[in-house]
Amino acid sequence: MYDVMKDGTITSHYKFLGAAVFMSVTVNASFAIIIFCAIKCYSYIDEIIETSSTTSSKTRAIQKQLFYALVCTILIPVLVLDIPVTSLLILNLANTGIGAKSAYLSFIMTFYPVIDPLPNFLIIEPYRKAVLGTFIRKTNVVQSVPMSMLPSKI
């Protein structure tokens, strides 16, 4: 981002600083959109639950599960994208040579598409049952019958 000369003067690299400013604006805009949508979704879900007087306990349970899935869906991009990008920017602005350590942060960011749908599959009960039903098959126990018990003519 900048070089510190032997005499103590600082020479800025404006292309890199411009890119850092653009990235920080992008990260902050992403975070603001996440928070805004989360608040809107929460208030909408809360309003639906409060205004409907005939809401069953099952519907309330699903709404609660949707809320928890929403919270996890909000936390994932913040933890996997926003925090690593922000830490990379801060370390670069501090003129710290992070070098190979940046590979760890880049590696963490690549997991976002994999991790993002998991809260929905794990928290919302119908989805969880469907996923577990796919991987855990019920096996029928086959009982063996002695040959003497079988009819002689078929």
From TrEMBL:
Record-linked SUPFAM superfamilies: Family A G protein-coupled receptor-like (SSF81321)
BP term (GO), one: olfactory behavior
Any single GO CC term annotated in Swiss-Prot or TrEMBL for this entry: plasma membrane
Record's keyword terms, sorted: Membrane, Transmembrane, Transmembrane helix
Entry superkingdom: Eukaryota
GO molecular function: G protein-coupled olfactory receptor activity
Regions crossing the membrane: 20-45, 66-91, 103-124
Record's protein name: G-protein coupled receptors family 1 profile domain-containing protein
